[in-house]
Amino acid sequence: MANYIFHFNGSIHPGYPFWDFGAAGKCHLDRETAAEELGFSRIDGFVYNWNTEPIDVLNARMDGLLGGLQRYDCLLVHWPFSPNFNHRWIQTFIDRVHLFGANLIFLVDDMASWRSNPVLPNPAKVNIENYMASLDVSAEVNLLSQGDGFIFHSEAMLKHYREQLQLADKKLTDKVSWYGPSLNMTNYFQGRRHFDQGVDYAGALFKAAFLHELPDNFKLNIYGAREKDKELIKNKNIHLHARVDPEAIPQMLEGSYGLVWDSESYPDVVGPLGQYERYNTPAKFPMYLSANEPVIVWSQAATADFVRKNQIGLVLDSLAELPNAVRDVSEERYNQMITNVMRISPLIRNGFFLKKAILDVMAKIYVRSV
Description:
Elements: E1 3-9, H1 24-37, E2 41-46, H2 55-66, E3 74-79, H3 87-99, E4 103-108, H4 112-116, H5 128-132, H6 135-143, E5 149-152, H7 155-166, E6 176-178, E7 199-202, E8 220-225, E9 238-242, H8 249-252, E10 257-260, H9 272-276, H10 284-290, E11 295-298, H11 304-310, E12 313-316, H12 322-327, H13 331-349, H14 352-366
Parallel strand pairs: 1-2, 1-3, 3-4, 4-5, 5-6, 7-8, 7-10, 8-9, 10-11, 11-12
């Protein structure tokens, strides 16, 4: 039995697609690194766009990509596939893995249909056939579900996916796990944080309208600022930092807390991307923790329970609570938060939670308990 993780690249040069756009590239690098540290070998493939690729050419390509697989091997693949690949390509890929007798584990990075509408339709009120006609929904229901094992962001994501499959009268295998707080593999070497240095937010300010309504004297540090942001900080205690390489951000965070929040308006969480945080672990979350920084999250987010149980930050119902919530933390309580974070952060930096999730799902696939 051999274990593999599939790596897709968009050029002949080594790298990760979307490295310069948000955190997607860094997330893929870290997950592949964690798998390789468990002994997984990498299979390389290229992203290309050929919707009319003849079936004999596609079959030959799949033999070249996957011909080294043998019975009982394990192949770990990110979901979703690149949008360059159509459903026929993905189905052929899945079929070929199974033809060789290998086990296919999908590491779920994103659920595309949920990003635009995380609320599932009510079968009594909505035509389910129309819902299933969406390419993203069809892929999630008909293709993703063919995996032999699954690693989700959270237990809430797993439950929501089961509910989505029920709309099509499908069931999911019990060979599943989730990685919770996720990972950000970095070497952190800065000093201990102080409780009065404001709140860090990784992202462009002009895209975060919910931050504009905070009191003018509330200290914010913005990482990933754009030119447009300069017009928004007049008379406000906001410090802008230009975007840097994702590997460097943890070393640059200056604040006392890292804010994980997404909303189309202030103060409540509004909009599909905000509601999507009920299920996913945003890349910001492990990034802040990797830098020994307490986090601030929405009370309904998938990450909120982990924050509460480990006492590693603040959990808010509304962003209107933020100024008072930060102000009311004593230095003693903050230092205890830092101590708690420093217990968790090494696990974030070495990929512990994902490694555990990989081993957990492999045990469910390969080991039969009496």
